[in-house]
Specification:
Elements: E1 2-3, H1 14-26, H2 36-56, E2 63-66, H3 69-83, E3 90-94, H4 99-110, E4 114-118, H5 128-134, E5 139-143, H6 157-167, E6 171-175, E7 194-198, E8 209-213, H7 239-254, H8 256-275, E9 280-282, E10 292-297, H9 302-311, E11 314-315, E12 317-318, H10 331-335, H11 340-343, E13 346-350, H12 357-374
Parallel strand pairs: 1-11, 3-4, 3-5, 5-6, 6-7
Antiparallel strand pairs: 2-8, 7-8, 9-10, 10-13, 12-13
Helix pairs in contact: 1-7, 2-7, 3-4, 9-12
Bound molecules: pyridoxal-5'-phosphate.
The site of pyridoxal-5'-phosphate has 15 residues, from helix 3.
Length: 377
């Protein structure tokens, strides 16, 4: 199988799997228990938290382990808006966010917040003028993703945060689910207040991830109960998942340069090939993260191409895994105003560093044959 759907999920790294099994076998106590076994398990949890905090340049008590990107994004939207609502009720969210941000923001509107949507240009990138038009002195939260999951477009986070800092007291949340491990992501590199990471997008385990806050930032809890995770996320902390998350984060961080180079070389081999077909339009902009290439074949439905490739054991997806089973058109492609001839045919190829040039060369042969059958190009 050639698997080019790494933005949907990645294969678990053997080291992460080893960690998960070992922690389950040896440290399965409740980390809140006061006996020695609980204490040892808690030590392990705290060292995982410390490792992640060092990588993200914050303090350990600002790392909250969660069930993944969706929960972290919900916690950021509700938790930050509620924490800072005495300053105002205005929230800005980009139009191209993942549904776990968009839908949470729609819920905020029902709770008396005023949400406005930051538009993007035809490359799927936020233009700073749009932020300038929308930001107000009573804006309390701005949520912008680092890399878009459908196109790979890199958003101008530094430029946005510089403007927001100068002109408001708003806190800034960044969904880094698609950028962590591909671009430098930490509070030292990017002037944001909260960062979402999902483990299964970086060769970690599904159902785990984290929300990180910058030092001195605060968030209101969403889950109430025993007060675990500094009172922010009640429920017995799943130590094996948390420690595996730390492992995946460390591997992605330590191998960033090498992995990014591999993915860049892969996509540099692929893009000229794809654009040599007259009926293909590249959807990903030039300023994209190296692991995502999305394109469209004119007047061909994405599903047709996906099925044809699947028959040859090549796994790709439509623009996002979440929307791929829905018949509605992607909100990201709509926001980019992709023309009708192309909008239904968008295919996303997404890579990880375990993909190889050999796979790309095989893909080229298979794709050329598929195109002959479906299009005659
Ligand atoms: C940009 C982005 N944010 C959030 C999520 C949700 O992450 P999870 O699957 O861990 O809930 C995804 C998953 O596709 C994503 O691509």
């Amino acid at each position: 199988m050639i698997y080019f759907d790494n933005s949907a999920t990645t294969k678990v790294h053997p080291e992460v799997m080893k960690t998960f099994v070992a922690v389950n076998e040896k440290f399965w106590a409740n980390p809140a228990s006061i006996h020695e076994f609980g204490h040892q398990t808690n030590e392990l949890l705290q060292s995982a938290r410390k490792q992640v905090a060092e990588i993200l340049h914050t303090s350990p008590n600002k790392i909250y382990f969660t069930s993944g990107g969706t929960e972290s994004n919900n916690l950021a939207i509700f938790g930050l808006a509620n924490k800072y609502k005495t300053r105002g009720r205005h929230v800005l969210v980009s139009e191209i966010e993942h549904p776990s941000i968009l839908e949470a923001a729609k819920q905020l509107m029902k709770n008396g917040f005023e949400v406005e949507w930051i538009p993007v240009n035809s490359d799927g990138i936020i233009v700073i003028d749009a932020v300038k038009k929308l930001l107000r002195t009573d804006t309390i939260l701005v949520s912008v993703m680092h890399v878009n999951n459908e196109t790979g477009a890199i958003q101008p986070i530094q430029e946005i945060s510089a403007y927001v800092r100068q002109n408001s007291r708003a806190v800034i949340h960044m969904d880094a689910v698609q950028s962590f491990g591909k671009l430098p992501v930490h509070f030292g590199a990017l002037d944001v207040d909260a960062i979402t990471i999902s483990s299964h997008k970086i060769h970690g385990l599904k159902g785990s991830g984290l929300l990180a806050l910058k030092q001195f930032m605060e968030v209101e809890p969403m889950l109430f109960g025993g007060g675990q995770e500094s009172g922010i996320r009640s429920g017995t902390t799943p130590v094996p998942l948390a420690v595996s998350t730390a492992k995946a984060v460390r591997l992605a961080h330590d191998n960033l340069q090498e992995n990014a180079k591999t993915m860049k070389e892969i996509t540099e081999n692929l893009i000229p090939f794809l654009t040599s077909f007259p009926s293909i339009k590249l959807i990903s902009p030039t300023n994209r993260a190296s692991h995502i290439v999305s394109f469209s074949v004119r007047k061909i439905k994405g599903e047709v191409l996906i099925n044809a490739l699947q028959q040859k054991n090549v796994i790709v997806s439509t623009s996002s895994a979440c929307s791929s089973r829905q018949t509605t058109t992607s909100h990201v492609l709509k926001a980019m105003h992709i023309q009708d001839d192309y909008i239904k045919g968008v295919i996303r190829l997404s890579f990880s560093a375990i993909n190889t040039q050999e796979e790309i060369n095989q893909f080229k042969k298979i794709f050329t044959n598929v195109m002959k059958v479906i299009k005659g190009d």
